[in-house]
Amino acid sequence: MKRILFVLAVFICGAINAQVDIKKLVKYADSITTSEVSIPKVPGVVLAIASSDSILLLKGYGYSNYDKKSPIDPEKTLFQTGSIGKLFTSIGLLQQIEKKKILLNDDVNKYLEDWKIRNPFDQPVTPFQLLTHTAGFNDHFVNYMAKSNAEVESLGKHLPKNMPSVFQSPGTEINYSNYSYALAGHLIEQVTGNSFEEYIQSNIFDRLKMSSATYDIPDDYLKREVYANGYSIRDTSFVEAKMYPRHAKPAGSMVATGKDMLSFAQALLKRDTILLKDETYNLLLKEQFTNHPKLTGYTMGMEVQDYNGHTAYAKGGQVTGFLSVLVVFPDLDLTLFISTNTHLESQFDNILTGIIDEFFPKKKANPVSVDFNIKEYIGKYANKRANHENVEEFFQLFAGQFTLYESNSGNLSAYHDDKRNEYQYLGDDIFQNLSDSNVYITFNRVKGKITSMYRNVNMMGAEIPTSYRKLNWFERPRFLNDEYSYYLIILITYLILPILWIGRFFIRKKKPEFLRKQTIPFSYHAVAFLFIGLFFWSVIGLIIPLVKLRGDIVYGFPESLINMRYFNWAMALCAFLLILFSLNLWLKKKSTILFKVYFTVFSLIALSYILILHRWHFLNVTV
């Protein structure tokens, strides 16, 4: 689905630059969508294109219920829009800023009565930072969702016990955060006295006559004809995929029709004062923060886009079973909304290259030659959008890694957007894509050392500003997943010792003094065996169940897994004792050289395992 917006957006820019008739543009958009639905690559699509004062295309394609072959009605069928809902939260907060009930650069803790954000830095978190994703929050998914509407908590109840802490100084860089917008929604509640849903209904939906838009998604929505059913793809078949309710509704829980979203998009395009003052629209439709001048950044609600010199503002949404994108081109007086009832992003890839080549040819970079040390930059990088204070960070590591290599020509090489890309060095820690001169990767240093990387990630046709940190060798997924397992084998070899003891027993039948002086206290072996037992228990009782949880982690950690931390603490104590025992073996010259070396290596590996558990928060499993 990420391709369809990009294809259409690309075509829009290319078409207007080439002065293609607008009717031809609409006809082409209609044709390409019809083709992709008829294959079928997606179950259904709602597509809307408009200028500020007229609808150019509003049409449904395919089915809202694929099994029943229920057609999509762009004026009646409700699609889940995901994070596009953040735009409504942003406008709601900006309305309060206009009324001076909230100040843009105030400490948000000022508006929280019974609880405060956990922020260890001097710089406070402000409303500006909430809306530009620069607050520096850990981003966690544990307890983010509920299994039914009856279990959904109000923001006033959910946030005090689930609001993530701040992991870096606010205002430093962009790190996407759902909870930033959840808190923004709660601020609206605090200063208006209304629930978030009531406020948005009265001050946005009703004003724009978005008659179908709502935050009400019943538990049995799959059985209701007005709601589009979401689907995943298994083999070549569409399979229903249910979306469950979330506690943090301001982060994106809205459903709407194509007509609703077109009314909203046109209001943005013409800067309708029924929502905001004209000067306030500058906060929403003008870049407010970027990780680097070479990279597009965020407004107070939208991702800034650059399509062949035309600045656009986009917001995408992806939830289970649905993909949606809204894009506004102010200088072209055009807006586009598209939503499909499948959450897979790999749609329309076959036609993307042809469209770009014909209507939007990329400009290749002019080769430059600047000396630099490429070894500073190559390596593994992890997306900073993670929860840096619990075990979620470990699992997010595997999902959000990005690797930079050295190419045969001495440039940086990276695989993204389904192809290998090569970047040349421009100086000042800036690299430019050789095949697309508008794409960059930049870096940040701390005390002369590369610590962070910044790039824009293409998701659903929109460029999303993303921050990464450079991984140490012991943090790399390959080390943790593959290489370190060989060290752990040494721990298991300790189980062979009882067999050797049996052999020693029979030898002593004939040679009573055999290795008797080299015998070490049995307590050393007891602690080693206890460590091995606890090691297996941590793998079987904690790590494997956590892996099996996968997506279910959004409903919370089972209490049984949280209680596993007590066994991990016992294992850490064993590792500490093993190190002491190893030192004692060498100091008192006990046992044979071979066994002392073996026992020391065993103890060091045990300690390293504890350090890894500590680094990835397994020692103290918390929500």
How many strands in all?
Answer: 19
Helix percent band: 25-40%
Strand content: 15-25%
Largest sheet, described in full? 8 strands, antiparallel, barrel
Can you count the helices? 17
Which radius of gyration do the C-alpha atoms yield? 29 Å
Low-confidence stretches: 11-20, 348-360
Indicate the structural class: alpha+beta
Can you tell me the overall shape? elongated
Ends distance: 33 Å
Biggest β-sheet: strands ordered side by side in the sheet? 12-13-14-15-16-17-18-19
Mean pLDDT: 88
List the helices and strands and how they pair.
Layout: H1 2-17, H2 22-38, E1 44-50, E2 55-65, E3 70-71, E4 79-80, H3 85-98, H4 127-131, H5 155-162, H6 178-192, H7 196-205, E5 231-234, E6 237-240, E7 255-256, H8 258-269, H9 278-284, E8 303-307, E9 310-319, E10 322-329, E11 334-340, H10 349-359, E12 379-383, H11 392-399, E13 401-406, E14 412-416, E15 419-427, E16 430-433, E17 440-446, E18 449-459, E19 462-470, H12 477-492, H13 497-510, H14 522-549, H15 559-562, H16 565-587, H17 593-615
Helix pairs in contact: 1-2, 1-10, 3-6, 3-7, 12-17, 14-16, 16-17
